[in-house]
Amino acid sequence: MTELADTPVQPGAARTQGRPRSSRAHEAILEAVLDLLAEGVSVETLSMEAIAARAGVGKATIYRRWAGKDDLLLEALVKLKGPPPQPEGDSVRADMIRLLTVVGPKDERAVRVMPCLFPEVHRSSEAYRIWQEAMAEPRREVMRQVLRRGIAAGELRAGIDVEIAVSMLISPMLLHRMVRWNPALDGYEDLAEQVVDVVLRGIAA
Amino acid sequence: MTELADTPVQPGAARTQGRPRSSRAHEAILEAVLDLLAEGVSVETLSMEAIAARAGVGKATIYRRWAGKDDLLLEALVKLKGPPPQPEGDSVRADMIRLLTVVGPKDERAVRVMPCLFPEVHRSSEAYRIWQEAMAEPRREVMRQVLRRGIAAGELRAGIDVEIAVSMLISPMLLHRMVRWNPALDGYEDLAEQVVDVVLRGIAA
Amino acid sequence: MTELADTPVQPGAARTQGRPRSSRAHEAILEAVLDLLAEGVSVETLSMEAIAARAGVGKATIYRRWAGKDDLLLEALVKLKGPPPQPEGDSVRADMIRLLTVVGPKDERAVRVMPCLFPEVHRSSEAYRIWQEAMAEPRREVMRQVLRRGIAAGELRAGIDVEIAVSMLISPMLLHRMVRWNPALDGYEDLAEQVVDVVLRGIAA
Amino acid sequence: MTELADTPVQPGAARTQGRPRSSRAHEAILEAVLDLLAEGVSVETLSMEAIAARAGVGKATIYRRWAGKDDLLLEALVKLKGPPPQPEGDSVRADMIRLLTVVGPKDERAVRVMPCLFPEVHRSSEAYRIWQEAMAEPRREVMRQVLRRGIAAGELRAGIDVEIAVSMLISPMLLHRMVRWNPALDGYEDLAEQVVDVVLRGIAA
DNA sequence: TGGTAATCGAGACGGTACGTCACGTCTTTCG
DNA sequence: CGAAAGACGTGACGTACCGTCTCGATTACCA
Fold first, then answer.
1. Which strand F nucleotides have any atom less than 7 A from protein CB atoms?
2. Count H helices, E strands: chain C?
3. pTM, 2 dp
């Protein structure tokens, strides 16, 4: 295969000498990971060799950038999820329901990958940090703002604990999407609505 | 190593001829899995060879009993968790809080293993089935009964959806224990109390 | 590929437990080495992976038996050379010429491999030992006997140093066959004759 | 590392444009090769990357000058050996013994490298050519002259084959020095003398 | 009581993937 | 434009496990 072109990655970094790292290779690797996952390869059976072959890249080129499979997977997933959705401000209830139900266009792959990140996130503090910063915290922050707006508007009680409310809203949805924790909920198309209703009533003014 | 004795396992099964399977080997294998996990071996780096060596058992003896690592791990975890706790019936609130905070004596190992089961549970329908039957459903059932008792006693509104309430109660605790999903909640020793309070107010009569 | 059958190798050795090593695999590996060499693969470009693939064997099966490529090559060559030729006893001169010119049926491969053993023999004392015992010494011994018979018959001077004579007879032939050390000798079909004549005259009675 | 100065090599060559090649780099590379060998790195484990690093040179700078490792090694060895010794003319016997026993000051490295050249010399006709021209032929030529002088002086028979005599004299010494072909000769400090005596007697007038 | 049959620990089997290393080439910046 | 630096695709290295398959040696049941 002909070698990848050479747009440098990290142009302002300390490394200035030598041939710069190819951004095309970088992208090709991340794309290969997501492609293979989309084709049904499970995260456990996903091999670095297959990724390298699919990306048309040497294994060393992957290991030059990421410490291991988990590291790579994490970045691929962060790239996949993209920025969190923004509330429209109609009402706390409507905003919340929308936030809990938005599904990105490629979320099919995300649903497959996310459960596989749990072991890694549980084990590595670095993975945990990335995961929190890139995925969890931005989404929590959006919900905090919605709740605070509700408090300011008098919809919600002033003394409520925003963190707990956020966790209570997201957790059931997350577990349901990820591992279908309670099969009895499978029929609920309006699960988000019901969760929001219970929590909002629980913290209403 | 000297061979394990041979108290038969599955004494009433169809296999009647030949040497019966050693129940000592069975136990030794499960113990080896839990020991290795307790010693800090992650589930991903846990190898069948290490298990066999630790248990003083041939690899074939493991594969004769379980289909693979996931299968074995699941059984080890079920054995570890034991039966779900029983409510004492004081009040819905007190029972719930107790159910959400009980920690078995060996739960240190369980916390380590559980996140690693998520990928497997997400992928394999058989693992999902076992996990639901042996771990999730029994615990959900206990909580359902508490809630129904609350309805019968007039503490809770009659029309509430028990399944949703159960999921809303457990999910934040589960995610917190397993992956510390919201780091802001780390300081809450009374997290269970607060979650229960919000939900109960949300579904109060 | 179906697994190789299971005639044990080293039947009297210390290892008695476990599945015995397959002698078929052993043979297949050595054959693969010689086949690849015969097909023109140089010793430097000969890879363990190619050997394993050709032999239909896992790489571990090779490394279980030999420490590395050199070790394996040495055994393959010893197998290739076979036992040294035997003199017929006509006369010292005729016997010597025959010994110096005999070429085994597969010597084409031997000529290719032998020069490649020199670095290894020079570096590893173990390789040196095997090479001496299996290849060099048996051939030297045959020549010693011929010379001693010549002394006993009065053809050769009694005080000659047999070791030096042997080295002087073999060395020019060896260097010529292996690296064509002196290109001016290329045309000599009767090189062995001439070498023998000079040495015999030099040590004649 | 600071760049090497740039005294041009080949000042009169066709390349006139651009920066001339640094003769310092050339020397540094050859020195690096010999240094690494002297430090015990075997020829097989000697890597171009290590040479470049030791010489403070980019790999491309090496490949710009030599086709590969063998090419480079050959030049390093030729540089190491230096010109062949000159006979003093006392007598054929004394000259020969001196020629066969001279050991250059750095021959320690030469002894290590020479056996490693055999595979290369056997395989590559280009390596063979360089080796013959730079190392073997000059030394053979010196010995031819000594022998011819002996013939002219009536010391040696007129009809002898000089090429064969040369090969017979050098070969046992070469094999002994390089691979200790016959361990029984290890104790001979006067091996050269004995070899010369046998050959001279064999070709005496 | 002696044969039959399945299991035992042990470890070799053909494989796959690992993470590293070196190859020889290519692409930067610097002098 | 040559220099160093170092990334590139390639491919072999030697190791670790995978899940399967012999081995000889134990057990139990059943005749």
1. 1-24, 26-30
2. 10, 0
3. 0.80
